[in-house]
């Protein structure tokens, strides 16, 4: 069994091996390539002005320790603007103790075991999240999108930000877990 990042639970090695097998050499936005933060995923989020809501969510959910753990992981990190697109009151509910479990699942749905750079993501590729959900990659030239199980699509607007325990791709929309993929 492999330790699951963010979720604080264990996921079958099957998900890890499916992602490893898929790891080979997709709105029209040119992706900005990142660089290395020299820090783990949690500290990288804390230092990013575009991810302050994400970092707060990590703290509220108690997942900062997992985000500091051994990887590698690929994180599709929603920007502040992505969180602001949620319906009014959604984040207020997540900040409450009763919303912690839903917030944890939501965050974990953005994490995939393994390190997938933008060059390794392929059109139509299926990625298994640490919660068991499936994300689908769309690739058209330099534009890469990630679609969740409910059909919501996020565009990667900054790719390949290296952390010591994985890689981060900033996305413009929150990916929503479906009941089966939570």
Automatic annotation (TrEMBL):
Protein name from the UniProt record: Uncaracterized surface protein containing fasciclin (FAS1) repeats
Cited SUPFAM superfamilies: FAS1 domain
UniProt domain FAS1: residue ranges: 38-175
One Pfam family from the record: Fasciclin
Native organism: Spirosoma fluviale
Gene3D superfamilies attached to this UniProt entry: FAS1 domain (2.30.180.10)
InterPro entries: Adhesion/Biosynth-related (IPR050904), FAS1_dom_sf (IPR036378), FAS1_domain (IPR000782)
